[in-house]
Design goal:
The protein has helices at 10-19, 24-31, 35-42, 50-62, 84-94; strands at 65-68, 77-80. It is mostly helical and 105 residues long. Strands 1-2 form a two-stranded antiparallel sheet. Helix 1 (10-19) packs across helix 3 (35-42), helix 2 (24-31) crosses helix 3 (35-42) and helix 2 crosses helix 4.
């Protein structure tokens, strides 16, 4: 997988895991780390190697997390990726309701 381009700390990992509704055990198993070690990392009580952090990031991405790098507008973050089915549904909804009007308020 692609190298992460943002600092992955425990809080971001925990937020991603909760957002994707996946257990620490499941992420840890996919990343090849101990579940207890991952939980301690998320709480800031343990450190992971750069390689372990990359594997955790890859595992979270596998389960639907999309990491957002810091830019001029805001800091690092995480959001859920839409599935292809969700994207098709959203595109269908955007075409409903008639012609687009002016939205100036």
């Amino acid at each position: 997988m692609a190298e992460i381009e943002l600092p992955m700390d425990g809080a971001l990992a925990r937020a991603a895991r909760h957002l994707c509704k996946v257990s620490a055990r499941t992420v840890a198993r996919r990343a090849g780390v101990e579940p207890k070690q991952l939980r301690r990392y998320e709480k800031g009580a343990a450190a992971l190697s750069t390689e372990q952090i990359q594997r955790v990031s890859d595992a979270l991405s596998y389960y639907g997390a999309m990491f957002v790098a810091e830019d001029a507008i805001g800091g690092v973050g995480v959001r859920r990726r839409f599935t292809r089915t969700n994207v098709r549904m959203i595109e269908t909804w955007e075409g409903e309701g008639g012609p687009v009007g002016s939205d100036d308020v």
